[in-house]
């Protein structure tokens, strides 16, 4: 570890030394991607590769974060590093905005342009009596021949998506209360509201898991259900993954609070996780309106 220069006990700008963690994390991601691809294509060993990669990746990240937390608690991160962290988290969230914007754009293009355009073509291009509505294969519409796209029901906003909307909005409020308590130096109150926020996030994931079960078993809505099914599971699935990541962030922050980390003046780790969680809330509101209501 090195620094450009020092001012008292805190470096002018702390620069960590060479680390093995990025390379080791990449190894874990390799097995995750390899296993997921093989599992989706019906190779049983892919599940073991996926599990191994996830466990390896989690272990490396745990060691990496432990080292970073030690540097932070050791007073190596000054104001300039804090500014760098804020810019880094801001750009990361911006990249996530672009990530979801691409998927929202794909949904818009399919609904407004692609499917209506296909419906205006000659039937020989698709199949007889194809209707260019949204979605294109539901009871009452014409499904594709030979069961390529089976009839299915769409997922409406009530009750599960609405319940999840209430859960996420409430979690945003409880997280804000926890932040104000931390700034006021009320650690016990902060920990209480953080645990409530984490539990709300876990409940959201549980409701979404049940929603997927309901979609597959009662609505016959699957990933193979045409463009509607693929966009539905793509958007809600990726959002669910982000909720899971955000919930883990909040859980680790809560554990750090219980260990006495963070002060009313310096707590960017808390703020960064809060920014991410509020971003997840906003994305869900867009999903709730565009995917479930429209």
From TrEMBL:
One of its GO terms (biological process) is aerobic electron transport chain. The chain crosses the membrane at residues 21-40, 46-65, 85-110, 163-184, 191-210, 230-253, 274-293. InterPro entries: Cyt_c/ubiquinol_Oxase_su3, Cyt_c_oxase_su3_dom, Cyt_c_oxidase-like_su3, Cyt_c_oxidase_su3-like_sf, Cyt_c_oxidase_su3_a-hlx. Keywords: Membrane, Translocase, Transmembrane, Transmembrane helix. It is a multi-pass membrane protein. GO terms for molecular function: cytochrome-c oxidase activity. Its EC number is 7.1.1.9. It is found in: Cell membrane; Membrane. The keyword Lipid biosynthesis does not apply. It holds the Pfam family COX3. The keyword DNA-binding does not apply. It comes from the Bacteria. One of its GO terms (cellular component) is plasma membrane. Its main location: membrane. It is an enzyme of class 7 (translocase). Residues 9-294 form the Heme-copper oxidase subunit III family profile domain. Belongs to the cytochrome c oxidase subunit 3 family. This is cytochrome-c oxidase. It comes from Rivibacter subsaxonicus. The lineage of its organism: Bacteria, Pseudomonadati, Pseudomonadota, Betaproteobacteria, Burkholderiales.
């Amino acid at each position: 570890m090195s620094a450009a220069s020092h001012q008292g006990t805190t470096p002018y700008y702390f620069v960590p030394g060479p680390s093995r963690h990025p390379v080791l994390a990449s190894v874990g991601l390799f097995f995750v991607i390899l296993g997921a691809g093989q599992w989706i294509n019906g190779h049983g060993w892919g599940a073991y590769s996926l599990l191994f990669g996830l466990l390896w990746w989690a272990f490396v990240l745990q060691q990496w974060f432990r080292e970073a937390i030690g540097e932070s608690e050791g007073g190596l991160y000054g104001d300039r590093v804090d500014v760098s962290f804020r810019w880094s988290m801001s750009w990361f969230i911006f990249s996530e905005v672009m990530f979801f914007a691409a998927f929202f754009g794909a949904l818009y293009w399919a609904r407004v342009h692609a499917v209506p355009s296909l419906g205006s073509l000659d039937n020989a291009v698709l199949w007889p009596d194809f209707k260019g509505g949204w979605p294109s294969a539901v009871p009452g519409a014409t499904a594709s021949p030979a069961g390529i796209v089976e009839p299915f029901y769409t997922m409406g906003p009530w009750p599960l998506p609405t319940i999840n909307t209430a859960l996420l909005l409430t979690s945003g409020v409880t997280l804000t209360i926890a932040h104000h308590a931390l700034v006021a130096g009320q650690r016990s109150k902060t920990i209480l509201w953080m645990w409530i926020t984490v539990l709300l996030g876990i409940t959201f994931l549980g409701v979404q898991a049940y929603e997927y079960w309901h979609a597959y078993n009662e609505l016959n809505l699957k990933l193979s259900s045409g463009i509607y099914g693929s966009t539905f599971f793509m958007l809600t699935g990726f959002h669910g993954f982000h909720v899971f990541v955000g919930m883990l962030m909040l859980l680790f922050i809560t554990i750090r609070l219980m260990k006495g980390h963070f002060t009313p003046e310096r707590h960017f780790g808390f703020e960064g996780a809060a920014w991410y969680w509020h971003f997840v809330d906003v994305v869900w509101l867009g999903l709730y309106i565009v995917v479930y209501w429209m």
